Structures are given as C-alpha cells and as structure tokens.
Amino acid sequence: MTDRANSSLNPPAGAGAGPSRSGVTLSASQLEQIRRLVAVGRASSVDEYVAAAVAERLERDRSLSELQDLFERKGSAPSAEHLAWAREKLGVEHKDGEADT
Fold first, then answer.
1. d(Cα 26, Cα 55) in Å, to the nearest integer?
2. Where does the record place Polar residues bias (predicted)?
3. What is the overall mean pLDDT for the chain?
C-alpha cells in the first residue's frame, strides 16, 4: 500500500541501497547509555543502535500516515474511546493541547 497522505515518507526507488554518512548530535547522557548497551552486547555499535532506532521510528511514522490516509478516505476519525484504548494499550500519554478526534 502506498502512502498517499505523505508521499515524502516513500523513498524513491533505489534509495537506501547503501550506507551514507550523516552527523547526529546526542546528549552526553544518551551517548553514554548507548555505549553501555554496546559494551554489554545489546547492539553491535553506536551506529547500529542509532540506525535501528531511526528505522523503527520511520516505520511507525509511515504506519501512522497510512492510518491517517485510511481515515481520510473513509471520511471519519477514531472516536475518543478508541483513542483512549489505543493510548492505554501502547502506554502513551495524552499530550497537552491534543484534541480527541
């Protein structure tokens, strides 16, 4: 399924075919925590840990865009009850200023 809600989340063909370099700034605390995880074998390197975290976030954002597109095509949105259930199951808090749809 394509992501019509945000086509910028769909990389062009051939994108991601190989690694490329980018600078990322982390706090000293975050970097130290990642290094500790690498030291105990939870990740093979800092780069691998960050790449896995980015991949997970990109997949989540792609899925959320796809879901939003589905609701837009349907012409409705989830009820406040559905959103509350999802927040409970996912363990996320309701953000201040966020309206229930």
1. 17
2. 1-10
3. 81
